[in-house]
Amino acid sequence: MRFLIDFFPIALFVAAYKLHDIYTATAVLMAATVLQTGIIYGIDRKLQTLQKVTLVLVLVFGVLTLVLQDERFIKWKPTVLYASMAIVLGAALWGWKKNFLQILLGSQLSLPTTVWGRLTVIWVAYFLFMAAINGYVAAFYSTEDWVNFKLWGYIFPVLFIIGQGLYIARYIKDDSSDAKKS
């Protein structure tokens, strides 16, 4: 269910682009992201920092795209988002000696400190990769190609989530087997 909630703004954006143009698609993306954020808040009664940042960036870059009639703003929004997340996580980890990933997810997931450190480095690398690949496609390919990349490029986050799950699975304790032993 969560995957569908995460995916529907992109799907609607692509559909609106295919049926109309980048400006209609941008307006649809803005509305869908507001709706998505409302749904997530309705379910969880809170929003994660990444969800708030994404909403703000979609609205700011969307408004710039529509008001200035310049598609470059919406095309570069993912690069700005991913690069910002990499900078924040990296600066916190290496500059301030704080692991924001552990701070944000530590109450939901119990992992050794060294694993949290490696996981954060993996997230920084992932965000840098996503920023670079989006920037490359936005700069050197047509808007049509970039929109298609937004749809089919969704495989990268899916693969990242699966890989991350496989990486941390060995560190997660099985409470049900511990209960049976007692």
Explain this structure to me?
- The chain has helices at residues 2-19, 22-44, 49-68, 72-95, 100-105, 113-140, 143-152, 155-169, 175-181.
- The longest helix is centred in the last third of the chain and has 28 residues, at 113-140.
- The chain starts with a helix and ends with a helix.
- The chain contains 9 helices and no strands.
- Helix 3 (49-68) packs antiparallel against helix 4 and helix 6 runs antiparallel to helix 8 (155-169).
Topology (elements, then pairings):
Blueprint: H1 2-19, H2 22-44, H3 49-68, H4 72-95, H5 100-105, H6 113-140, H7 143-152, H8 155-169, H9 175-181
Helix pairs in contact: 1-2, 1-7, 2-3, 3-4, 4-6, 6-8
Q: Quick one: how many beta strands?
A: 0
Shape: globular
Radius of gyration: 18 Å
* Total helical segments: 9
Instruction: Give the low-confidence spans.
Output: 175-182
Tell me the major beta sheet: none
Query: What share of the residues lie within helices?
Result: over 70%
How much of the sequence is in beta strands?
Answer: under 5%
**What structural class is derived from the secondary structure elements?**
mainly alpha
Query: Overall mean pLDDT score?
Result: 91
Short description:
Helix content is 83%, strand content 0%. By secondary structure, the protein is mainly alpha-helical.
List its salient traits.
182 residues, mainly alpha
